[in-house]
C-alpha cells in the first residue's frame, strides 16, 4: 500500500473545479496522515483550448504519465460554441487520455442508496457494476467520409474489436463478478445484428467462463437490457460490454439510481503501466457553473474508486459509507457544493 | 382509398400465430365491408427453416412484392438452439425483408395509454414517435473478421450512412413532426464520438429544417436520451435517429409506456415501390407460445398503423380507440389472447 500519492488533477470546465475542490477535500480527510497526497493541477479543458488553442499534446501526456493517478472533474464548453464543434474536446482530451493511457476498463458501479429517490416506481435493490471496454469499438476514430456535402456523400464509422482487447476486458469482468456476492456476469451486445463483433465477444465470454465455474453467465441484447434496467434492475450484478453500449447503459443506469449527480467512474489501466483516471459521469454543466449548485457526490464517489484502486480499501469504504450517511441525512434545503463536501469530509475526520 | 387489400401474412414463430389471428380479426372488423381483405399466409420463420432449410429466397421475395402490405407476427426460435445461432433468422428474414423492400422508415409510436401502468413513478404525458432509419447504419452487414478464433482476431463492424439514405429519412421525420400538434423534432445520435456519421446527420437535419420553420429542432446524444426517457419522457415528440440507436431507444420507450406487449411498429417504404410491413415490436416468446397467454395488443396496434398507411385513417383511429377502451376496462383477471382480440373486434362491430 503506497504511503504517498502523486496525483494529477484536471478540474476542467464548468462545474468541474467546484466538484473537484470537494473531492480533494474528502480525499485528504479520508487518508488523513496515512497517505501523503501531492496534487498537481493541470489546466486542460475547453476553456484552456479557447484561450491557448491547445488541447493535449505529447508533452502534456508525458507529464500526466509521471503521476500515480488522475482525478478529472468535467470537460466541455458551451455546446453551441462553433469552435467546440464535433466533440473536439471530448475526443481530443477525454478519449485521447483513455486511449493513450490504455484505460481499457471503464468501471461504472451503479448503486441505489437507500435514501435516494429513483424515477422508477419500484426499483427494488439496485447494486451492479458495468465493466465497459474503453479502447476499442466505434470509439477508435476509424471512420471516414467521401463526397462530403454532396448528395453522394457516404459516411462510415468502424467498430474495431480485437481478441486482445476483448479478452483482457472480459477477464477483468470475470474477476469483478467473482469478487462480488452475487457472482453473476451478463454480456451485453447485439450479436444478432453485429455478428462479427458479437461472435468474438460471445466466444470470448464462453471461453473465459470455463475458468470461473462459480460465476453464472448470461447474455442480453442491448435493446433488451434497456427494458430490464427499468423493469427489473435488480437482475444485474456485473455487466460486461463494449465501449458504445457501455456508454449508453451507464447513463440509463445512473438515471434509475438517482441521476448522474451520483454516478462515479474509473478509467482503469489494470496493468499499472499508466495512471488510471477517475471522473464523475456527469458533464461540465456550464449553465450552473460557478454557483455552488453542483452536487459533488459523483466526484467524491470517484475518489472512493481511486482509493480502492491504489489499495486504500479501508479509506475507500469509509468514503462510500460517509456518502451514504450524508445522502440519508439530506433534507429538502439545498446545500452548496462546498457544504456537501465539508459535511462528508467532516464526518470522515470524526471517525 | 383502396377498397381491396391484398395482404401477405407471416404469422411466424412462437406467439406470432396467436397474436396474428387476433390482429386479422380486428382488421376485418375495423374495415367491415369497406375494404375487401384477401390474406395470403406465408410460413416463413425459424420453424419453417428448421423443417425445410429455407429462410427466404428470391422467389419468396417476388411473391411478397405482389402484395399491398405485409403483416408479421414474430420470428425466432429457441435462442439456445445451435442451428439458429448468430441471428440467422433475424438477419435472413426480418432484416432481409426490411432491406429488400426498402423499408427505410421504421416507425414506432410510443403512447402511454391513460389506464396503463408505467414502471416510472411519474411518467407524465407520454406521446411521441420514433422515426428510425431502417436500411443503413451498422445493420448493413458490412462487417468482417480476420484470424477468427486466434489471439490475433480482429472483428470489425461498419456503419454505413449515405446522404441519400439520411436525407429521405430526415424528410419523413420533418413531415411527421409537422403533422403533430407539438411540432418538435429531436435528432438522436452520438455526434461527439461518431463524427463522420454524426456530422452527416446533423448537417442534413440543419438543412431540411430550413424548409420546416414551424418545427422546433433539438439534438441529444444517445446516452442522454436514455436519461430523459426515464426522467422526462414528455419532452419528446418526434425522434429521428439511426438504425441502431432507434433499436435501443424504442425498446426503452416501450418499457416506460407499459411494455413491449403494447408496442407496434411499421417498416415503411414511403415511396410505395414495395409493400410496407407491420409488426409488433415484441419477439416470438417461445416460452409462452401456444398457451393463449400472449397479449395481442401490439399486433392489433400494428394493424392500426397498417390501416393508416393504406389511407384508412378512420378505421385506424377506431382501432386505436378500441384498444384504448379495452385497456381501460382491463381488470385483474387475465384474459386469453383470443378473448382480448374478440373484445376489441366486438367493440368495433358495435360502433
Ligand atoms: C463525453 C463522451 C465522449 C463520453 C463517452 O461517450 O464515453 C461520455 O459520454 C462518457 O460516458 O464518459
Ligand atoms: C430482431 C432484431 C434484428 C430487430 C432489430 O434489431 O431491429 C428487433 O430488435 C427490432 O427492433 O425490430
TrEMBL record, chains A, B:
Cofactor(s) essential for the protein: Mn(2+); Mg(2+)
Gene3D superfamilies (UniProt xref): Isopropylmalate Dehydrogenase
Comment on bound cofactor: Binds 1 Mg(2+) or Mn(2+) ion per subunit.
Domain Isopropylmalate dehydrogenase-like: 6-344
Database matches in SUPFAM superfamilies: Isocitrate/Isopropylmalate dehydrogenase-like
Reaction catalysis annotation: (2R,3S)-3-isopropylmalate + NAD(+) = 4-methyl-2-oxopentanoate + CO2 + NADH
Entry's Gene Ontology BP terms: L-leucine biosynthetic process
Record pathway: Amino-acid biosynthesis; L-leucine biosynthesis; L-leucine from 3-methyl-2-oxobutanoate: step 3/4
GO cellular component: cytoplasm
Subcellular locations according to the entry: Cytoplasm
Pfam family, one: Iso_dh
GO MF assignments: 3-isopropylmalate dehydrogenase activity; magnesium ion binding; NAD binding
Domain of life: Bacteria
Residues engaged in binding NAD(+): 283-295
Residues binding Mg(2+), per UniProt: 223, 247, 251
Binding annotation for substrate: 98, 108, 132, 223
Protein family according to the UniProt entry: Belongs to the isocitrate and isopropylmalate dehydrogenases family. LeuB type 2 subfamily.
Biological function: Catalyzes the oxidation of 3-carboxy-2-hydroxy-4-methylpentanoate (3-isopropylmalate) to 3-carboxy-4-methyl-2-oxopentanoate. The product decarboxylates to 4-methyl-2 oxopentanoate.
HAMAP family: LeuB_type2
Complex formation: Homodimer.
NCBIfam families: PRK03437.1
Protein name per its UniProtKB record: 3-isopropylmalate dehydrogenase
Organism the protein comes from: Conyzicola nivalis
Amino acid at each position: 500500500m503506497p504511503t504517498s500519492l502523486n496525483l494529477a488533477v484536471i478540474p476542467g470546465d464548468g462545474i468541474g473545479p467546484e466538484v473537484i475542490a470537494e473531492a480533494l477535500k474528502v480525499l485528504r480527510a479520508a487518508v488523513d496522515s496515512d497517505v501523503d497526497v501531492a496534487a498537481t493541477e493541470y489546466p486542460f479543458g475547453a476553456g484552456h483550448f479557447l484561450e491557448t488553442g491547445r488541447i493535449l499534446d505529447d508533452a502534456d501526456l508525458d507529464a500526466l504519465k509521471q503521476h500515480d493517478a488522475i482525478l478529472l472533474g468535467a470537460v466541455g464548453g458551451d455546446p453551441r460554441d462553433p469552435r467546440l464543434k464535433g466533440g473536439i474536446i471530448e475526443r481530443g482530451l477525454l478519449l485521447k487520455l483513455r486511449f493513450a493511457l490504455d484505460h481499457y476498463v471503464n468501471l461504472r458501479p451503479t448503486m441505489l442508496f437507500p435514501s435516494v429517490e429513483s424515477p422508477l416506481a419500484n426499483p427494488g435493490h439496485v447494486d451492479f457494476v458495468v465493466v465497459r471496454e474503453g479502447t476499442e469499438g466505434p470509439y477508435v476514430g476509424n471512420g471516414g467520409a467521401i463526397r462530403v456535402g454532396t448528395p453522394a456523400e457516404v459516411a462510415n464509422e468502424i467498430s474495431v474489436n480485437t481478441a486482445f482487447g476483448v479478452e483482457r476486458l472480459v477477464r477483468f469482468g470475470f474477476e469483478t463478478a467473482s469478487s462480488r456476492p452475487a457472482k453473476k456476469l451478463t454480456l451485453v451486445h447485439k450479436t444478432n445484428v453485429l455478428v462479427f463483433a458479437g461472435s468474438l465477444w460471445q466466444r470470448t465470454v464462453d471461453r473465459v467462463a470455463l475458468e470461473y465455474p462459480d460465476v453464472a453467465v448470461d447474455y442480453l441484447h442491448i435493446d433488451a437490457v434497456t427494458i430490464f434496467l427499468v423493469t427489473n434492475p435488480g437482475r444485474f450484478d456485473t455487466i460486461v460490454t463494449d465501449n458504445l453500449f457501455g456508454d449508453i447503459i451507464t447513463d440509463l443506469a445512473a438515471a434509475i439510481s438517482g441521476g448522474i449527480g451520483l454516478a462515479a467512474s474509473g478509467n482503469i489501466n489494470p496493468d499499472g503501466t499508466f495512471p488510471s483516471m477517475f471522473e464523475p459521469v456527469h458533464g461540465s454543466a456550464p449553465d450552473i457553473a460557478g454557483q455552488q449548485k453542483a452536487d459533488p457526490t459523483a466526484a467524491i464517489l470517484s475518489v472512493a474508486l481511486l482509493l480502492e484502486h491504489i489499495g486504500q480499501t479501508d479509506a475507500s469504504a469509509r468514503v462510500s459509507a460517509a456518502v451514504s450517511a450524508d445522502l440519508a441525512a439530506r433534507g429538502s434545503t439545498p446545500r452548496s457544493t462546498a457544504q456537501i463536501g465539508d459535511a462528508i469530509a467532516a464526518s470522515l475526520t470524526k471517525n
